[in-house]
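Page 42, continued from yesterday. The earlier attempt failed because a stray header line got pasted into the input along with the sequence. Redoing it now with the clean sequence only.
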Amino acid sequence: MTFGAGGHSRQLLTSADCKLITLDRDPVAYEKAKELSKEFPNRVIPLLGRFSELPALLKERNIKQSSIDGILFDFGCSSMQLDNGERGFSISKNGYLDMRMDAGRDPNQITAREVLATANEQELYKIFKVYGEEKKAAKIAQTIIQARYMIKNIETTRELVDIVDSCCPNEFRLDKLQRPQSNATKVFQALRIFVNNELNEINYGMVLSKYYLKLNGRLVTICFHSLEDTIVKRHIAGNTVNDVANPVPLRYLSPTLVQDQDTINQFLDSPWKAINKHVEVPSDDEVERNPRSRSARLRAAVKIK
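This time it went through. C-alpha cells are written below.
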C-alpha cells in the first residue's frame, strides 16, 4: 500500500518466496499491478481502492484479520502521477488542475480546480497553511480570490504557479539538495493532500495495519513530509486518542496530575515496538542517484500485542 509503479513489489517478489496483496487507488497503477500478477502467476492479488476501502476488498477475497505477515506503506504521490502533466500534479508540466489520485473513479470527488473556484479565502488559507506549511499562505489565498473575482477562475497548473510567483517576488527557494525549487511546491502539496483526503487515509491505514497484521508481523512506512511522518510516529508510540493520532506530541503536559504508574502505562500502551530507534533517511549516494528520494523517511515496527 500503495502499489505505485510497482518497484517495491517487484523487489519483494524477487527477493522472497511470498504472496503479495497490492493496493492502489489509481486505475493506472491497478493496470500495472495486473501486468505484474501475470508475470508472477498466483503470487500477486491486485486491489483497486483507497486505504479506507481495504476491509471490504479483503472481505471479498476471504482474507481475515490478523493473517498478514507484513505491510509496506509508501505514502504520497507516485512518480507516474507526477510525470503525467494531464493529471495536474506536476508544477513543471502544464495541465488542468485535477490532482485526483483516483483519476475520475469517483465522479463525486472534488478536483483541485473546483477547490480553488469555490473555497473562500479563510478556507484556502487553512489548506495552504496546515497541509502545505506555506509561510505566504494568507497572501496566496487573498490573491487567488482577487483573481477569481477580477479575472477568471484558476484552471491550469501554469496559472497557479504564476499566481504563487506573483505573491513571492524576488524570492528564491532551494530544496534539500540546494537546487532551485518552485515557490508553488508547498501549495501544490497542500491541494493534493486536501483533494485526496490523504492524512485521514494514512491514519486509517495505520489503524488497519494493527488489525490485519499477525502477532510479530512487520510494519514498514515510507513518508515524504513531516505531516505524514508525525501520524506514523504517534501511532507507533501509542500516542492516539480514539484511534486518531494525537495532535499534541505528549498526552499529559503536567506530571503533577498523574502520579500512579498504571495510568501512565495505560496512556503509553502501544501495540507496536519500533525496530529502528531513529527514523532512517537515504544516504547521499542514493539521493544523487534518485533525487526524489531526498525527503523520504522510513520507519519500521513489530506488532507485539
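Notes: The mean pLDDT is 82.
Reminder to self: strip header lines before submitting.
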